[in-house]
Amino acid sequence: DAPQALDAFWSLDLRDPQATWKTLPSWDGPGRILPVLAAQDGAVHLFSGCALFTQTGAGVAREYLQDGHCYAPGKGWHAVAELPRPIVAAPAAPIGHAHIAVIGGDDGSLVARNAELGDAHPGFPGRVLLYHTITDTWTERGLGPEGYVTTQAVAWRGELVIPGGEDRPGHRGNRVLAGTLITEKGMLGWVDWATMAGYLCLVVAIGAYFSRREKNTEVFFLGGRRVPWWAAGLSIFGTALSAITYLSIPARAYAADWGFFLTNMAIVIVAPFVVHYYIPAFRRSPITTAYEYLEHRFNLAVRLYGSLCFMAFQLGRIGIVLLLPALALSAATGMNVYLCILLMGILTTLYTVLGGIEAVIWTDVIQSFVLVFGALFAFALVLARIHGGPGTFFHTAYDAGKFHAFNWRLDFTAATVWVVLIGNVFSSLYPYTADQTTVQRYLSTASQREAARAVWTNALLTIPITFLFFGLGTALWVFFRQHPELLDPRLKNDAMLPLFVVRQFPVGLKGMLIAGIFAAAMSTLDSSINSVSSVLIRDYYVRFGTQISERRELAAARLLTLLLGLVGSFAAVYAARLQAVSLWEPFLGLLNLVGGGLAGVFALGVFTRRANGPGALVGAAVSAGAVLLARQTPLNYLMHGMVGFFAAFIVGYAASVCFQIKGDGKAIR
């Protein structure tokens, strides 16, 4: 036998047919034979194994190891939690999004008696261990039918499969094992269902109340321009805080750190520009949609370009806003995913059809309170469930680097503080300067001053809410680090908050927090379908129609709102049926090609006098191409919005100067 084991670690680039093996740095630990190796979430994990050493008079002996190490490309090795026992030569496989399952393995308890026992050896233990890569914890998860070593486990069709292996020293078994981990889903009681039903009935009643005031599209789309500034501000806030955001921000802090903390702070930087430049431009003419401004400032073609980009984005967004939170709720609570989608979609459509923008805004106000107080209660309850309370929460998270928020490296390929802040400033320009769902709120208030107050209401609310959601995610990490046995390997990170709710919340309050998640989705959905309807009516139906009565225009608006809500709901159902979640991200990424460009076109109109329609369209086209090129570079994706914005603005202005079309460069001033 060899007197010692190697600590070598190699890599091979499978993308290159001519590639050769490369030696990588080794881990900080002894060399070993028969280790357990598994990959999860882009990293390689090395557990256990046997170190070899020479024992005087007895030759080479083995030391059964319990250490663990993780290798992340670009970051190198770091130690992870020690195992509860050795698992030498055990089969292992990634399971879910953050777990590694280890089945069996040799713990060394009978190694000294192998020769004595012979064929009477009882075999290797079949105990199952789960390692969670995010909380760095191990848990016991029961006993398998038998234990194998010197083989591998593979994930196949939702099961873990072990194709035979060594069942006792010197003997290989021929059984193929397959199985799944059994997990419990939290259930909602009748009190929780009653709470949710009461909330949903309330929002429909609001729609019915405002239906009596909807006499024309001026009221249906703009609320008669009489919406209070604070209600408009809360509506902007509720619209921006979608269910995806409600779940994903805590999930990001739970899975990593506060590196994206400045993401939502960008609106505080953008707000002064919106208040002092964009709102005055929008309100100088009696317009209903943001894209009417583009025709006044440029020409009809630019108006149609802007409205088409907006509608394409929103129609895709309706489906994803319904689908992703429904999947998270279904996985964590056991609720039927189709029921979640249809409840949110159909009820939102109903009150939006009945009450128009006033129903949208006032339900957004209620929904904003529900989701914020739900998050506050969740944060307080997580802290109460952590052993040691707030002090332990803070010290545990701090020692693990979970509060790390600022990476000051001057590197535009990684999520440094410069990339997060600058990138999100330009990403925020689209929703706050070029998106009808937000501009509609500016136009629904009584005056320019009221609209400015609405913008500042949303911006200032964002600061404490960002602290709340990042704190909640970090608290969830500390809680599940103390209680890893409560984790469900099937769930994605964005289901951690619903998982905590259904397993830890008191009866009745579960329903309230789930209603808060519903509220976050509904407050985004109602805005989307009402604003898309306003664009279809004002930018197409009225713009190209002749002698359309107010009654007919209102009927068309309600019909379009109904159709948009139903189409979005059933599109989400169809996507869930096809399990086509992965298709939404590239689809939205494609649509985001135009976001920076459209924001750049609006900036051309607001900040320049010489820009004209043909130049703006050239800038928009070049912007899309520039973003496509940026995606082929190492530049971080957060910076793509800035690339699109400046390409549209600079090229659009230069092209306008070249065209110099007489009379097409006037602004609304």
Task: Outline the structure in words.
With 669 residues, this protein is an alpha+beta fold. The protein has 2 domains: 9-179, Kelch-type beta propeller (Neuraminidase), CATH 2.120.10.80; 190-591, Sodium/glucose cotransporter, CATH 1.20.1730. Helix content is 56%, strand content 12%. It has helices at 114-117, 190-210, 217-222, 229-240, 243-255, 266-283, 290-297, 300-333, 337-385, 389-399, 417-433, 436-444, 448-482, 496-504, 509-544, 550-578, 581-591, 593-607, 613-630, 640-659, and strands at 9-11, 22-24, 36-40, 43-47, 50-55, 59-64, 68-72, 76-80, 92-95, 99-103, 127-132, 137-143, 154-156, 159-168, 171-179. Strand 3 and strand 4 form a beta hairpin. 49% of the residues are buried.
